[in-house]
Design a protein that fits this description.
Helix content is 71%, strand content 0%.
Length: 177
Amino acid sequence: MGAVEFALWGLAGGVLVELLELASLTRAHKTFPWQVPGQMRLGAYLYCALTRPAAGAIVAVALGLTNQITGPWGLLVVGAGAPLIIQNATKQAPPAGERIPLSTKAAAADAAVVESIVAEAAVAESVVIEAVAAGDVAGGPVAAEVDQRPVSASPSPSPSPEAASVAATVRRMRGRP
């Protein structure tokens, strides 16, 4: 597919939405919207109605040429949602004049990722230890390594929900209730 086909699919998506909106307004007012007192005149309505398909064609070409969307359905949907895509893209930009150093953003993102991984690892470790302590996991290289760790004489009275779920799954796999 080339740029012209991308544009046509995006244009079609925009036109489709505008036709559905026109049908909805016509049904609600029982006449064309530009014939309702206090509503936009025909010229203004046409200008607004042609803006979405034009934006849809431009966004579809941009996404199509960069291989972010390659199929007709995706381009049709992009054409229909082009105003929202553009609106959301501009909302994410920092305010004019405000610059955030990339290194600060990257460091904050890296710290958040590391913190998340450490937290998940701690939960996984406690789940395995509780399952081993409950006697629901035995054998295998991981279990043998965990079995070497000292386990308190009195296991926790109520295992965490994660440990209980792991233990139940292991019991089912072994055919035990």
